[in-house]
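EI: anyone free to look at a 341-residue chain?
SC: sure, send it
EI:
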Amino acid sequence: MGPSNVYSLDQSSIQALVDILNVTRSTGEGVDVVDYRAQHEDQRTLLDELERNEYLCKVNEKYWITLNGLTVLNNQDVKDLLERCEKIFLVLRNHYKATPKENMKVVDLANAADLTFKETAECLGYMMKAWCWSSYSNSFQDPAEAFIRPSERILDHKTFQEVRTELKKLRDNRQENKETATFPNKDIEMPDDAMPILQGSVLHPKIVEAALSQFETHHYRDAILNAFIAVFDYIRERTGLDLDGENLINTAFSLNRPLLLLNKLKTQSDRNEQLGFMDIFKGAYKGIRSPKAHSLITQLSSVKAYEYLIFASLLARRIEEAKLVSSRIKVKTRVRRNLKK
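SC: here you go
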């Protein structure tokens, strides 16, 4: 029997979602969690329940309505928003079929969908919770920089309505299997119907594209290796470097002349973070990615494999969020100069 609370939100819950949605749509920003909870002290339990049931999410201490949350709000504004998402999805699907290896600028996407840039950026903010994207810009607010690239998984569905239906099923499965999905014992196996918890917003799109299909078919070793190959390919993709291993990591995250900045590098704490993640990337390469470490990934349960993918996803997320401080041309020139020394 499925969960009984999927569409049983009371009026207070619906109103809270509507209020938060109205603020985010008018300002283009999330609702400050601390301020909102202080101003609505009697709704704190309700807000926790909405978040727990995946109608609401917190991103950088801001409340946002999830795609599942939009689905339960049956008003004309939401219907119009979802209709725009449908148009955007079809344009991106056709773009992938025609040019599967190319990014699409959000400006061009808006023109093709006959929408404004603002409308398109708003829709993409919700659509990112699906799993059919290969890469996208850190933000959709800058017309000069904003882009998105679909992955092959966009071909799994003909319409965005089908995507939303599947996301709802995954959400229902997660709610039904919540107790089983905590996995306090590392030796137990993850039930098959809990595997979809990896999709959506849990894993970085790069890891979803590289490793999820192997994980779902129980090829755990291949899933892990593919995930970490994707991590280091992502560094090369962002920087233009043609290096591997420690040379790649040292050049990309160097304190002296970094190509990827994890922070502003203004304080000792900033420098410690940059150095710390350099070591983490090196450890991941030596212990997981390196061919010499392949034999170490044995006796894998689905839970242990899941933990590896979460780790890979964290690294991919930090690469995505890092600020690129050199162009590809400058990078290649610098690398050639360093190799001559």
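EI: The chain has three domains: 11-71, 76-155, 177-340.
SC: 👍
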